[in-house]
């Protein structure tokens, strides 16, 4: 695979771009009590400019937030949504997590990878498509799922996924099966992820028929979730719903220590681990 020289960016932003990014970054920083908390959306912001987290983007974030470039790089390399080389106009993500995989995701991946001639996190020579294996997108009810710049394409097959890729390559519009009516570019999507909405968040249906099936069945049958226990540990009258940061909140739960684990439970865990390794 080759990356066009023109797509590799220089080492600093010009004055106009720097000024524009500074205004946007100030708006992001203003959302947080501490400036460094703005780093994640700012990395999306520089991706919206360069199509990846470029060296100059890292330098910009570091200077704006009073961090070292090493600190910014450490964060950027941790998350797969941050790209370390120029991304295609469209990220085509094939879910190959367990449910999608067994429903056909692995077959879609193999076919698409062969068809495009690229592997994971690689980009077609024309710069249109970056192909990725992606983890579960909480769309298992529509497995196997393909994402294009994080828009849903549900219930896919190798043929339908190949058609999406061919349309993208040909510059034809593709239509997600849920949510937004169209797919924006990687740079446009990155700007939305930086927190600058494009006004399209509520387009289309999010939760469809399979998604709502469980809750509709529960309503029809009169099923309800168990109540939370009250302060004495018993459910029922007096039971309270935990509030964020409250007693039943996981945020307030002390970390598990060896003292919390009974010898019997520890023995069972050990035998389970041994069985896995044998
Ligand atoms: S396993 Fe693919 S969306 Fe959940």
From TrEMBL:
Q: Where is this region: Disordered?
A: 226-278
* Bias (Basic and acidic residues) ranges: 266-278
* Classification via Pfam families: 2Fe-2S_thioredx (PF01257)
| Keyword field contains Amino-acid biosynthesis | no
UniProt entry keywords in alphabetical sequence: 2Fe-2S, Iron, Iron-sulfur, Metal-binding, Oxidoreductase
Q: Which NCBIfam families match?
A: nuoE_fam (TIGR01958), PRK07539.1-1 (NF005721)
UniProt name for this protein: NADH-quinone oxidoreductase subunit NuoE
Q: Which organism is it from?
A: Cellulomonas humilata
- Lineage, uppermost ranks: Bacteria, Bacillati, Actinomycetota, Actinomycetes, Micrococcales
- Tell me what gene encodes this: nuoE
């Amino acid at each position: 695979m080759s990356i066009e020289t023109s797509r590799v960016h220089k080492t600093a932003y010009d004055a106009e771009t720097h000024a524009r990014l500074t205004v946007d970054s100030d708006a992001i920083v203003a959302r947080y009590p501490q400036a460094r908390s703005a780093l994640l959306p700012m990395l999306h912001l520089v991706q919206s400019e360069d199509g990846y987290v470029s060296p100059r983007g890292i330098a910009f974030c570091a200077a704006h937030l009073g961090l070292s470039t090493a600190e910014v790089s450490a964060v950027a390399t941790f998350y797969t949504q941050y790209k370390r080389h120029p991304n295609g106009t469209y990220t085509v993500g094939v879910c190959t997590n367990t449910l999608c995989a067994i429903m056909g995701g692995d077959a879609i991946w193999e076919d698409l990878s062969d068809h495009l001639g690229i592997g994971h996190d690689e980009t077609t020579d024309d710069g249109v498509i970056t192909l990725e294996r992606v983890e579960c997108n909480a769309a298992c009810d529509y497995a196997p799922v393909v994402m294009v710049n994080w828009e849903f394409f549900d219930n896919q097959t190798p043929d339908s996924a190949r058609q999406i890729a061919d349309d993208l390559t040909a510059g034809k519009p593709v239509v997600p099966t849920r949510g937004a009516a169209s797919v924006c570019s990687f740079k446009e999507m990155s700007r939305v992820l930086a927190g600058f909405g494009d006004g399209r968040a509520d387009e289309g249906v999010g939760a469809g028929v399979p998604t709502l099936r469980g809750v509709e069945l529960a309503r029809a049958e009169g099923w309800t979730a168990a109540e939370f226990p009250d302060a004495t540990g018993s459910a029922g009258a007096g039971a309270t719903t935990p509030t964020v940061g409250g007693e039943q909140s996981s945020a307030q739960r002390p970390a598990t220590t060896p003292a919390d684990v009974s010898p019997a439970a520890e023995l069972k865990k050990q035998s389970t681990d041994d069985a896995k390794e044998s």
